[in-house]
Amino acid sequence: MKIVVCIKQVPDTKGGVKFNPDGTLDRAAMLAIMNPDDKAGLEAALRIKEQTGAEVTVVTMGLPKAEEALREALAMGADKAVLVTDRVLGGADTWATSITVAGAIRNMEYDLIISGRQAIDGDTAQVGPQIAEHLGIPVISYAEDIKVEGDSVIVKRQYEDRYHEVKAKMPCLITALSELNVPRYMTPGGIFDAYDEKEVIVWGRKDLKDVDDSDLGLAGSPTKIAKASDKVRKGAGEKVTLDASESVTYIMDKLKEKHVI
Amino acid sequence: MKRMNLEEYKGVYIYAQQVDNELSGIAFELIGKGKELAKDLNTEVTAVLLGHNVKALADQLAEYGADKVIVVDDKELETYRTEPYAHALSCVINEYKPEIMLVGATAIGRDLGPTVSARVKTGLTADCTLLEIGDFPLNPVPGKEQKHNQLLMTRPAFGGNTIATIACPDNRPQMATVRPGVMQKLEPVKGAKAEVIEYNPGFAVNNKYVEIINIIKQAKTTENIMDAKILVSGGRGVGSAENFQMLRDLADALGGTVSCSRAVVENGWLPVDLQVGQTGKTVRPTLYFAIGISGAIQHVAGMEESDIVIAINKDEDAPIFDVADYGIVGDLNKIIPALTAQIKAEVGK
User: Which CATH number does A2-215 carry?
Assistant: First the structure.
């Protein structure tokens, strides 16, 4: 069995987001990490590997620096790593990203593809389902649990007030929630292997299969940014001193004004 | 991307999500927003209703403002599954060619939206909190066509630390998923009727159809404060574990969840998974009540990105007031029960 895990390197927001003195986001001060949902997806794949002897390949699209996340995945136990990096892929939205990753996966063997539900920088949750659509395979999003049974997977699919137990024939794509598991740590031996024994294969535009140039990068992205800004931290608002019943009226007015009730 | 004939695409369409043949609130919110956009574009709002035995729900969509309702009613659509639903919505889009297609950013919409956008080959902007009609680029750029009447979609990214406004100028429909609870529904007009169009594209089972083995409905057991839209958070000033019942009552009335500061956990009043702050969780709800919380920097770091902060504290110098949108200096023991009663009365109307 062959499993492909899609991962992304993202800036770490845990332990507080750092700001510049002008209130804008200080990206340089934040560490780059493997996206948490993706890491849960990788852990799920490694557990299947332990049960079935599956081969696990991790793939990412990103800057050359994203190799770090792939090395971490190798150190955790992934067998192969592919970095898709090319200048023409820069500035991609979720459409162009999913076209790119699908184009790379077409050159791999796979029974199961696992991606994280969403990345903590973009929070879109779109790339996983869009990859499945481009590859013409079923997608099961928001997975809380994954079991392999013969040629099928059984997935606990989360909704707001319920879950569905869903069975799909492989090949299929699953998007993982970080609630799925607690990812393992890298072992010293694993880190050694990741740098000395295993390699990160680097692919560019020419290694993508059945992909049109007009669908790639910034130019191939249907969505365009009209305006972007870092959210400036808010300061103090109003402060009032009122008796209990006036306070209630004051709060009720605000809740109505803000459409809370 | 392939060039499309953009002129062919007209009208604002919304996906009218139903679960167990009951319309979700987001359907009405999207109609409300859709009406505003449609007014600016001088067009109509069409609700797309997918399911089995759901036609009767069309009247409700009409009462909330839908001008037309397209109903796809088929046995395959009885319970949400990605493939038959994506097939149905994609076929509606290809057949009726809307210029705007809005979908709720729910656990269903965030699966359906991406799949459909990839299938009909257009862009999709996720989790929008603001939608308006305007020009793209926003300001004229020499040598570049400025397109008018574009859907401008604003969304937070980076966990709410940045905001971006996005357009989809060369593809149709312009698609967005919209965060539930942000847009306002209209007052329903009793007896209002919409033009109802029944349409069925045909469903042929293929490899993408999955099998639902089991459906387990659950009352939320573990509350995840990071997912809560409304948090009623208490601090040392609440006074005791028993007094947190007041906060629970308020949270229940608002459909929110109780959370707390570190002091509360240290006193053993609430468990650590409800703690907000640097050593607890970072939360970004739509509404955060800080009740009896002084507002130490470690606490503020975990909640300052909340959309609206209402603080109640008897100490007028409490630092929490520096980050509150609305600060009330007063006695929480008197204010909270009275507020809860008022909200219950209002919601019960």
Answer: 3.40.50.620
